[in-house]
Amino acid sequence: MLPDMKPLYATGNELLVPPEFKYSIKWGFPDRSLRILYKGDLVTVFEDIVSADDGQVSAIITSDDGTTLFTGETTGVINVWRLRTEPRRDKRRPAHATLALRSRLYCHSDQITCMAHSKDYRILASGSKDNSVVIWDLNTLQYMHRLEGHMQSISCVAIHNVTGKAALYLF
């Protein structure tokens, strides 16, 4: 909830973009597009954002300030995007959003199921159906460490912002 205590709602395959939560991102469409909305109104459709012809976006998170977008794919690739949003200042002009690809991260061999990041530790943790979690350095966008040996797919990962420890849930 925001400081003004109004509840916020998102549908399945929709992420509200911080810090003001006026923008949202939807995914999972047959055309494999990402759609950005401003206060529920469609602003932009981004096509051809996946790394392979058979890929689909399977997980999304943003940085706390909403300027970096991480998209995980069914192919195991993670895309790191620069997200820029410009709200409607003049009622005659529509809101605007742009995406610029910063990097593609390769390490997983199956679908990305979940991601978490820590602003304080500058790391991203990605969970996958390949039963592993990969820790990425957000300063260099490089692989740091792989946690393997889990008996099931990783369905949730979280990072404690005080200790930097990762918690996993297997489903």
TrEMBL record:
One Pfam family named in its UniProt record: WD40
Keywords associated with the record: Repeat, WD repeat
SMART domains according to UniProt: WD40
Protein name: Uncharacterized protein
WD repeat ranges per the UniProt record: 50-91, 105-146
Taxonomic superkingdom: Eukaryota
